[in-house]
Design a protein that fits this description.
The protein is α+β, with helices and mostly antiparallel strands. It has three domains: 3-85, Elongation Factor Tu (Ef-tu), domain 3; 91-248, Threonyl-trna Synthetase, Chain A, domain 2 (Threonyl-tRNA Synthetase, Chain A, domain 2), CATH 3.30.980; 274-392, Diaminopimelate Epimerase, Chain A, domain 1 (Roll). The chain contains nine helices and 20 strands. The chain has helices at residues 5-8, 87-111, 135-150, 162-166, 229-249, 257-290, 304-316, 346-357, 378-392; strands at 3-4, 14-25, 28-33, 35-36, 50-52, 55-63, 66-71, 80-85, 115-120, 125-129, 155-160, 181-186, 192-195, 210-218, 221-228, 294-300, 321-328, 331-338, 360-363, 367-372. The protein has a six-stranded antiparallel beta barrel with strand order 2-3-7-6-5-8. A five-stranded mixed β-sheet has the order 16-17-18-20-19, sandwiched between helices. It has a four-stranded antiparallel β-sheet with strand order 9-10-15-14. It is elongated, with a radius of gyration of 34 Å. Bound molecules: zinc ion (ZN).
Length: 393
């Protein structure tokens, strides 16, 4: 058994310990000591990092009541070593973990929602609730959680046996085999109470700030993304800077930004509709002026959608076969379309164009399209027209 100093003094950052065993496995070393400040992975909380006697702790896990440190170098059994904790990492984990308790406990007391999943990763943490919470409910939950932060309530732990656990009512009782069950109380149970093996802040005030970042419907309930402590402050600060920059670019205030973005989006949709109508009129005009049965033409500034429109206009205008080239964004787009009753295969036509232009594309006998990096020349257009005339004879 390892003496777990992270339970008795949660933010103890270093300790002396004796190496009890050291075993090599796959180029790494599994080290146990009589005591440790390193928390192994458990209860959704990732393992601590740190060092033991100069060797880096790459991971830590629990095996048979012992904390097993995974190190990058061997340690002499029986030697006295100093174990040092990676403090910023632990602090971050404790902040997220304590915040998770607070959100889960409050979601339960406020809305009757049960936490059915918790995940903590380097960049984000999630809680899965078995009840759907809408945006107003989540906003209220976040507000209550931050009120609890400001009240700076104690976070305490108590170890009890199964009989003790059976005698109390708490939010969540994990299925623990041993008679050594740790129950964590936040605000004496007012905010949360559950069995837990993780590390926590000493008070809710130490969590600093709790943000609900995002949410979505998940398995009939809610998955919510949250961040706490230093992580939440960093994110809020980044978000404020980004919003300020955006608001300036829209010549508006941060609070008016959503309305400004919506307005621009509507204007953009309207402009797209107008552009499409004008392109259609332009294509119809080109088709009217062209009036040949075999239409092979190039239009500067036309993209893939525009050449599609142009071939359709040319066919409507009486062409038997239409091959339109457009030059836009450093690429040449082309599309081939035939009229009803014409047998010339458009996929073969585009294949021939691909060969001449060094382009890529394909399609069906009825229509095909492609693109190439090189611009189309008058010589290429003449050569393709002659080839098509041969096909159509
Ligand atoms: Zn916990």
């Amino acid at each position: 058994m390892t003496e777990r100093l992270y339970y008795s003094v949660p933010m103890l950052t270093s300790c002396e310990a004796e190496v009890l065993s050291c075993e090599e496995r796959d180029g790494r070393f599994l080290v146990t000591t009589d005591r440790t400040v390193i928390f192994p992975e458990g209860g959704g909380q990732p393992a601590d990092r740190g060092s033991i006697g100069g060797a880096a702790v790459l991971d830590a896990l629990e095996e048979g009541g012992c904390v097993v440190h995974v190190t990058d170098a061997p340690l002499e059994v029986g030697s006295r070593v100093r174990i040092t904790l990676d403090v910023p990492r632990r602090l971050d984990h404790s902040e997220q973990h304590t915040g998770e308790h607070m959100l889960s406990g409050l979601a339960h007391s406020m809305f009757g929602a049960h936490n059915v999943g918790f995940h903590m990763a380097a960049g984000y943490s999630t809680i899965d609730l078995d009840r759907y919470l809408d945006e107003d409910e989540l906003a209220l939950l976040e507000r209550r959680a931050n009120e609890a932060v400001r009240r700076d309530l104690p976070v305490t732990a108590e170890v009890m046996d199964h009989a003790g656990l059976d005698a109390i009512t708490i939010r969540k009782k994990a299925d623990i085999g041993s008679d050594d069950i740790r129950v964590v109380w936040i605000g004496g149970g007012d905010i949360d109470s559950c069995t837990c093996c993780g590390t926590h802040c000493a008070t809710t005030g130490e969590v600093g700030y709790i943000r609900i970042v995002d949410s979505q419907k998940y398995k009939g309930g809610t998955r919510l993304w949250f961040s706490c402590g230093g992580r939440a402050v960093r994110e809020a600060s980044e978000l404020t800077r980004a919003m300020t920059e955006l608001a300036r670019s829209y010549s508006t205030s941060r609070s008016e930004l959503p309305a400004a973005v919506r307005k621009q989006s509507e204007e953009l949709s309207q402009a797209k509709r107008e552009l499409k109508a004008r392109t259609q009129a332009l294509c119809d005009g080109i088709a009217l002026a062209h009036g040949e049965e075999i239409a092979v033409i190039s239009a500067e500034g036309f993209g893939a959608n525009d050449v599609k429109m142009l071939t359709e206009s040319l066919i409507r205008g009486g062409a038997k076969v239409a091959l339109a080239f457009g030059r836009c964004g450093g690429a040449t787009h082309y599309r081939a379309l035939r009229a009803e009753g014409v047998s010339a295969p458009m996929n073969e036509l585009v294949k021939a164009v691909n060969g001449i232009m060094g382009g890529k594309g394909g399609g069906s006998p009825a229509f095909a399209q492609g693109s190439a990096g090189a611009p189309v020349t008058e010589e290429i257009i003449s050569a393709i027209r002659r080839m098509l005339e041969g096909w159509m004879k």
